[in-house]
Amino acid sequence: MFWWIGVYAVFLWCYNGFLESLLGIIWGSLKNLLKRERFPERYGKWAVVTGSSDGIGRQYADQLAQKGMNILLISRTEHKLIAVAAEIERKYGVQTKWLAVDFSKGLEIYKPLREQLASIEVGMLVNNVGHLPPPSQKFEENSDHDINSVIRLNVVATTMMTRIVLPGMLRRRKGIIINVSSSSGYHPVPGMAIYAASKVYTTSFGLGLAHELRGTGVECQTVTPFLVSTSMSQEFTKNLSPLTAVLDVKRYVKAAVCTIGKTAYTCGHWMNTLQLTSLSPQALTRQQASQFNLATVLSSPKRKQPSFNLMAHG
What we know:
By secondary structure, the protein is α/β, with parallel strands linked by helices. 51% of the residues lie in helices and 13% in strands. Strands 3-2-1-4-5-6-9 form a seven-stranded parallel sheet, sandwiched between helices. Strands 8-7-10 form a three-stranded mixed sheet.
């Protein structure tokens, strides 16, 4: 008698889990076949990528340059930025600029950033910079520096960078802001409590902004990676089951870039979508995360901080 309630519930679960994004990607792909616009024409000539010297940010810079975008790299380490900029210019023949910025500093860093970015046509902003305290630490074990860095890099930097570039995009009536969030924002994660909470903000901010921007010609996409491996992830991933699929960062970002302009919300790769839709209920997921993080501590006495994306940063 009430079978239709079950059908409706399953439909809503599927739609919220992956169908909305999938349908958007299909529709966006069909529109792209008709228009055949390249990113520089559709959005603007320059892509600004934060946290771009390593990991996911580095791959976004590479993939966007391959599609003809000029790249402005923003990260903390100057010698890495110089090397990445030179390699991108050599491989793809695009223009590059770089800015060495420590986002863990206060609001004073944003005035010179605003002045520098005013000189270029920013068509894309990839908000990727972020900070992850050592996983498996309880909140009271997090240092003041870690707490400050999570707030300033994961929350303030995303918000302020968006605030800087958005007025110009609105005037030109084109552009896209890409916020790299995390699957850890889906459920509370014991051992990563402040990091996961910061990613709830990133996701909510991106989705709300996407609705506000409808009809303006400017877009906002939220990307929520799940298991993505970077060069320093071995210490963290060794406790995963051998059957657990951990995506290579280059493969992940290549798929994520294919979703740009097609959906406002994506896991970035179909494998991450399957992993996320198979998550247990919240209470069980919290217990599983707590047990997994404890295993990580026991297997790593020095508690090294890996660069591993249940997350998403370069």
